[in-house]
TrEMBL record:
Function: Part of the ABC transporter complex hrt involved in hemin import. Responsible for energy coupling to the transport system.
Family membership: Belongs to the ABC transporter superfamily. HrtA family.
Pfam families: ABC_tran
Domain spans labelled ABC transporter: 5-225
Gene Ontology CC: one annotated term: membrane protein complex
Signal peptide: none
Protein name: Putative hemin import ATP-binding protein HrtA
Localization in the cell: Cell membrane
Assembly and oligomerization: The complex is composed of two ATP-binding proteins (HrtA), two transmembrane proteins (HrtB) and a solute-binding protein.
Alphabetical UniProt keywords: ATP-binding, Cell membrane, Membrane, Nucleotide-binding, Transport
Membrane topology annotation: Peripheral membrane protein
Amino acid sequence: MKNRLVLQAITRTFEDGGMERTILDQLNLEVAEGELVAVMGPSGSGKSTFLSIAGALLEPTLGDVRLDGESIIGKNKQELFEMRLRKIGFIFQSANLIPYLKVEEQLMLVAKLAGMDKEKAAIRANELLDKMGLSLRRTAYPEKLSGGERQRVAIARALMNDPAVLFADEPTASLDASRGLDVVSMIAKQVKDQGKSAVMVTHDDRVLPLCDRVLYLKNGRLTEK
């Protein structure tokens, strides 16, 4: 089975008051297609740094990140932007929808940035909104949506460009238990159905049974316990 996300010996250091501080220390991770991995850890453990490096937003001090077989190392800002647009889908804690765009327009904007044919983009947007149970909400603005609906739009938007890897950063933090489970169930289903690799950073124990693996970030490394 293909690993669509691979982190090899990732180390990240920062200067802090004249001292060098190691946040990630020889961290390794492989996520196979169709697999949803949860990453947990206390505040200050390096989860945000880990997610930024895995998502091609921050380059590691040492090590390599490969997204669908392609390394992020040595690429310039424009190349990294293109890589994130083509290979990565982000789902954030607060959905981060654009307030003045309707549901369907949120997806179409992503497709436009990627240069997707408009007719093809409209078909894909319709398919994704249908899968997410949002067909009747396509012309609604974010303020008219429930928290669960906003997160479902965020999932659809993240999938719009058919990325290899999905990253979810605390996607249930602003939702009640049932809506949180619904959202993670949808993420897990899309990962399985479409052969994505996915990583979810979470503090929510309730959704862990929906994940294939649960890893803990301790002392700059990922462990199973």
